[in-house]
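Consider this record:
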Amino acid sequence: MADDFLMEVCVDSVESAVNAERGGAGRLELCSSLLEGGLTPSLGLLLVVKQYVKIPVFVMIRPRGGDFLYSEQEVEVMRKDIELMKSHGADGLVLGALTEDGRVDTELCTDLLVAARPLPVTFHRAFDMVDDPIMALETLVSLGFQRVLTSGCDSSALEGLPLIKRIIDQAKDRIVIMPGGGITERNLQRILEGSGAQECHCSARSSRDSAMKFRMPRTWRKMTRISHYAWSRLCWSGSPWDSSGFVLHGTWCRYAEEHG
């Protein structure tokens, strides 16, 4: 496994961010609502996370779950979120938008990229819903995105490995291709070696019972506190993960099935 590869970890809490940095993450993707694939986090979360970590924090700009075809009001929210996150310490942004026929929305993306300057911007996994990924990649290069997050337009990065390899070859260092989706300690090395990627994106979670002592019998079902990225250490030489037992999982929602 390449010693210089960068692992980006998506987090949705201060605790997660701190643990990810301690574990060896090189960059954070900060969002809320991971079960919806990640939405724009609160400004308060960004401010506090920046107090606790030193690695770059890229902020998700996504006003809702579901598809990536946005209304005028939603675009207005995205512009305002970009303005706020940029002025309060975000190191980069993560966003994307498509047209109704599954193409990159060049007009909207251009507008959002201008608003984001001078921050680097990642095009998120909206890429996995485009009708023609080869053409879409050229569009993103021409627009000026710094990187693309993708599972290779498949259910996981491992399943999409052939396309990931193809678009990395196509990119020719003009844009970073970052595999993500279903990456685990068992398949990470295979994905890196099979694609030639220099960056990977992952999320991880464990669950623990709530610390609440009082529980209303009629309303308490199985309330658990989810702790994402509860790693004690990451070891890039040999096995990428320690023996703590925490496993990486892709958390991207199936938008059409769950929100369409």
